[in-house]
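Researcher: Please translate sequence to structure tokens.
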Amino acid sequence: MLALCLTILTIGFCTLVHRYLHWSRRGIKQYPFWKIWLNNIRDFITQPPLTDAMVRAREDFKNARYIGTYQNFKPRLCIEDPELIKHVFVKDFDYFVDHNVFLPYDGDTVWEKSLFNLKGDDWKQLRGFVSPTFTSSKIKLMFHTILECSAQVVASLKKSGKEIVEFDVKELFGRLTTDVFFGTHFGILCNSVEEQTNEFYTIGQKATNFLGFWLKVRFIVIQVFPIVARVFGLRIFDQNVTNFFRLLVKNNIKSRKSQQIARPDLIGIIMKSENNPDNIELTDEILTALVATFFGAGFDTVSSALMYTFYELSCNSVVQQKLLDEIDANKDNFTYQTVMEMQYLNMVVSETLRKWPVGFFLERQCVKPYRIPALKDDEVEVQLKVGDGIWVPLYALHRDPELFSDPDRFDPEISMERYGLSRAPPRDYFLPPREGPLESRGFPEATGSQMEKRKTLGVVWSLAKNLKQNHGTPKWYRFSSENGITS
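Model: Translation complete:
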């Protein structure tokens, strides 16, 4: 009996205490284990947004260059120093080429083959294979489709004949992003803005919806108890979503071959796979994972960026008028290049991504031993081992008043150092797509993010012309537990 009790106590100690002492045992600052557990229990019950925890940790460890944190039971070193960020993500990026594994993929072949989970040479080969999709010339060819989809939104809203139209901005931009994705990558005009039960939008919602209490419970089971998850057949993606994308790719390729259609998009690149120099074998699982990954990564980033941009425009009449003036000045010579060169439009979108970074954080996994020297009296040298995870809390950095004066104020003219403006922020802390440390190297997230930013620019140009300020729009807001805006 005593042995049983000791065994239970040992297991309990290892589960409840020992795992949350990883960083403190190495002399690195972290919350006390009891506070971590209290925070976990509170957050599980109240379901606050992730950004709350980021800001709280930033305030509690104000002058720390790095602190020890945990993703459930897994230790993650949180990096907040600009020089250290540059070292990890630029100068010493060879040490951090892989992503952290947030969820195991035992038995889930699609999740296993996604770009989020591939490692080393497998990731480099596949990422290099699809990179031509992101070139400026390819995006330029997609621009007409982006404008068509945006025009459908305007036409749909004008059908009511009302001077002011109220709508769910998250749903509307979600539908618009769905139309843009399938139009630019598959050549399919699905018009989900008009069709409320559109299959593409419905499947897209299932593919990107990671909200809800029971879904989070399922993720915890998959992450903490992978054997139990495997026994009960729990998967990351809904099988209906997986089957939908698998059939979509097959049928789209078959249709293009039979009709001899050539398009400079993702499917077009896949169809030329026999010419790839690395002889990458594109199995059904890889193709399905590629498309699902592209959709999942692009859907939320673009729709969220649009939502936040138009929210800020509706609250800032001066900014809105400056943007409209610039659009009117270029309306007779409207091209892709014109939009890319519109200074104030770029400033508006960049300031949105400063105030509302759609990724919230950056993360990486150490692939070979890495040393972080101690530079302060209260620091110790950190020896990262292979498999150790790091992350950067973008949202907390972008909202820190010591880094950005009045960070909650939306001010496009503060965000663009490239235009020589006097109130530019510390560049190493400002990390929207292709900015800061990410800009000086072929950074993994940067190319795709730039594509999403350019899509956002095109849509903003198309829709901003029809925007009028609504004085009923709330000025105070915060993230909900679903990471949307709530007043």
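Researcher: Any highlights?
Model: Residues 350 and 415 are 7 Å apart (CA to CA).
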